[in-house]
Amino acid sequence: MATVELTIAGRPFELACRDGEEAHLRMIAAMVDVKALDAAKAMGGMSEARQMLFAALLLADELNDTRAALTRAAAAPAPPAPPDPEIAARVERLAERVERLSRTIAAAVSDRVETPPASA
Question: Does the predicted model carry a pTM greater than 0.70?
């Protein structure tokens, strides 16, 4: 177990954590410190317990906003997948074939119209 000394709202705290988690604990303690100082600035002379309560509420509010944003992002439709090049090539070949058939049919119809049927 490692021991980390932290300062939150000007007050020192000594906390134990798992070995290797010291930097993470310092980082999240710094977030709490910022919120505790924000609360003290906004509310003025309040008790230490009340200051920590407001810091916790500010962090919880940010967490709630983040979770809501993630929920909205997860509910949003995914962007369409890019077309498969192989399928696109097949569709192109089919389109060319349909155009050739169309020209063949148009030419056959045109020949029939130009050459009237023989009378008996």
Answer: no
